[in-house]
Design brief:
Elements: H1 5-12, H2 19-26, E1 33-35, E2 40-42, E3 50-56, E4 59-64, E5 70-76, E6 81-82, E7 95-98, E8 102-108, H3 109-118, H4 120-146, H5 149-165, E9 174-176, H6 181-188, H7 192-204, E10 209-211, E11 214-216, H8 220-227
Antiparallel strand pairs: 1-8, 2-7, 3-6, 3-8, 4-5, 4-7, 9-11, 10-11
Helix pairs in contact: 5-7, 5-8, 6-7
Keywords: DNA-binding, Transcription, Transcription regulation
GO molecular function: DNA binding; DNA-binding transcription factor activity
Domain HTH crp-type: 147-221
């Protein structure tokens, strides 16, 4: 898969795109920039004048709390647009770091303005994607505040699998999850030791098998029922006559 195909495949999940719309999207994926695992794309508090497309690899957004602990908010995958929530803000609200070696394509806000001017359908899709990102944050808050540790992890794995299926031609029962125990802990408000225990418990129930960074879900319907996962919040459709 080429670097420039990821974003297009993501958008084509929502609608069939014309050649001119594909070309318009491709203007946002020029000047690729390579970052190593652990490198920052931008940091919280920096001036928000740009967004980025993640063309290859995995990344995350985070806040550092007053006590020095880290809270992870978003996990980004190939094709994701980063910085949509900050479109109307002056400063970045979180730090973006690479989980794996990544390829990012930065673009200034004015390039997105150009897309909005030229395509009502792409504008609708951007709004749908922004809505999905906001809904994922709401689910993250529910995870932190209301679900037990097993349900937190199971729900996140269901969500990850569902997101990956958008650009991987259908359902997946096995996928790579390149997050460390510490990252998973910071995502779910647990300790790394607790995360390890939860994986063991899910394995004992034949719900999830993990071998290092490979995750296998033998019965996705069973895991979805176990975690009360409903994927509607990941399947929003664009509104409007051009969508």
């Amino acid at each position: 898969m080429s670097h420039q195909s990821c974003m297009v495949r993501h958008f084509q999940y929502f609608a069939d795109l014309s050649e001119s719309e594909i070309e318009l999207l491709s203007t946002l994926e020029k000047s690729p920039e390579q970052l190593k695992s652990g490198d920052a794309l931008w940091r919280e508090g920096g001036r928000a004048e740009e967004m980025a497309v993640l063309s290859k690899g995995w990344a995350y957004s985070s806040y550092v709390l007053e006590d020095g602990s880290r809270m992870i908010l978003d996990i980004f995958m190939p094709g994701d647009v980063i910085g949509l929530r900050e479109y109307a803000l002056d400063a970045h609200q979180s730090t973006i770091e690479a989980i794996t070696d990544c390829t990012f394509c930065r673009f200034p806000h004015c390039h997105l303005d150009d897309v909005f001017d030229k395509s009502g359908r792409l504008t609708s899709i951007f709004f749908a994607i922004s809505g999905i990102q906001q809904s994922m944050l709401v689910e993250r808050m529910v995870n932190l505040g209301r679900r037990n540790a097993q349900s937190k992890l199971a729900h996140f794995l269901c969500e990850t699998r569902s997101r990956l299926s958008k650009t991987n031609d259908g359902a997946l029962n096995e996928f790579r999850l390149p997050l460390s125990q510490q990252m998973l802990a910071d995502l779910m408000g647990l300790t790394p030791v607790h995360v390890s225990r939860v994986f063991s418990s899910l394995r004992e129930q034949s719900l999830v098998y993990r071998d290092r960074h490979q995750v296998n879900i033998p019965d996705i319907d069973r895991l979805m029922a176990f975690s009360d996962f409903r994927e509607g919040y990941l399947r929003m459709q664009p509104k409007g006559p051009d969508a």
